[in-house]
Specification:
The complex is a heterodimer. Chain A has helices at residues 16-23, 56-73, 104-121, and strands spanning 5-10, 30-36, 41-42, 45-54, 76-84, 86-89, 95-101, 124-130, 133-136. Chain A is an alpha+beta fold. Chain A has one domain (5-131): Alpha-Beta Complex (Aldehyde Oxidoreductase, domain 3). The longest helix of chain A is centred in the middle third of the chain and has 18 residues, at 56-73. In chain B, 21% of the residues lie in helices and 29% in strands. Classes of the chains: A alpha+beta, B alpha+beta. Chain B: Pfam families: ThiS.
C-alpha cells in the first residue's frame, strides 16, 4: 500500500493517537481530524448500542479509492481512514479520519471529502439496538 | 453456471443466509438477476435502492454476469 495512506477496519477500539502519528510530518502545518462517535439517540429513540458489519475486502478497497482520490484532489501529505466493526456502545468511535497538509484548507477539505464519500460508498452497515428492538440504518430509505 | 452470491445487512436477513449459489443462464444482467431475487424473495421490495458488486467492485444494472463472478447484494450503506 501507498506509504501516504493508512486504511484499517478493526474489531479493536480505534486509536486517535495512532492516526495522528501516522499523518504528522515536519512539512505539514496542520492536521485535520474527524472522529465519529456513537450517539445515544436517533429520531428521539434511545440507542443502546450499534453493530457494524462490513463486506470487508471491498470496504478496504473502497476506502483506498477514497484516500487515493483525496490525495489526487487536494495538496495533502498523508491520510488515515480507520473504521470499527462489531458491537459499539455509546461514546465509542466508529470512524477516525486524519489528514495532514502544509496549509490547513487542504486538510479540512480532504477530511470532509473523505467522510462524506465514506458514508456513500464504503460497504459498511450499521444496526441500531433500542430497548424495544433493532433496525438496520438506511435499510428502508 | 452457479454464481456465488453474498448478502449483507438487511439483505442477509431477508435471505436468511450469508451466501447462496444461484444458477444463472448466459447473458444474464444484474437487472435480470435483481428481478429474479425480487421474485424469489418478495421482501426485497426496495431492492432498487440496493447496489450490486461483482468481484468486490460496484457494477451497474447493465453488467452481464460472467462465469466465476462473485456477486454481492449491498443495501444502502450506513458506515461512519
Amino acid at each position: 500500500m501507498n506509504d501516504r495512506i493508512s486504511i484499517k477496519i478493526s474489531v479493536e477500539p480505534l486509536n486517535i493517537q495512532t492516526c495522528f502519528d501516522f499523518v504528522r510530518d515536519d512539512s505539514c502545518g496542520g492536521i485535520a481530524l474527524f472522529v465519529g462517535t456513537v450517539r445515544n439517540h436517533t429520531a428521539e429513540k434511545d440507542v443502546k448500542q450499534l453493530d457494524f458489519s462490513t463486506y470487508e475486502p471491498m470496504a478496504v478497497k473502497e476506502m483506498e479509492i477514497i484516500a487515493d482520490h483525496a490525495i489526487q484532489r487536494y495538496p495533502i501529505k498523508r491520510i488515515a481512514i480507520h473504521h470499527a466493526k462489531g458491537l459499539l456502545k455509546i461514546g465509542d468511535l466508529p470512524v477516525i479520519i486524519a489528514v495532514s497538509s502544509a496549509h490547513r484548507e487542504a486538510a479540512f477539505e480532504a477530511c470532509q471529502f473523505a467522510i462524506n464519500r465514506l458514508k456513500q460508498t464504503v460497504p459498511i452497515w450499521k444496526k441500531e439496538f433500542f430497548s424495544d428492538g433493532e433496525v438496520w440504518v438506511n435499510a428502508h430509505p | 453456471m452457479k454464481i456465488k452470491t453474498l448478502f449483507f445487512g438487511v439483505a442477509r436477513d431477508i435471505v436468511g443466509k450469508d451466501e447462496l449459489l444461484i444458477d444463472v443462464q448466459g447473458n444474464t444482467t444484474i437487472q435480470d438477476f435483481e428481478a429474479r431475487l425480487l421474485n424469489q424473495y418478495p421482501d426485497f421490495s426496495d431492492i432498487r435502492n440496493f447496489a450490486f458488486a461483482v468481484n468486490e467492485s460496484y457494477v451497474d444494472r447493465n453488467y452481464s454476469i460472467q462465469k466465476n463472478d462473485l456477486i454481492a447484494v449491498l443495501p444502502p450503506v450506513s458506515g461512519g
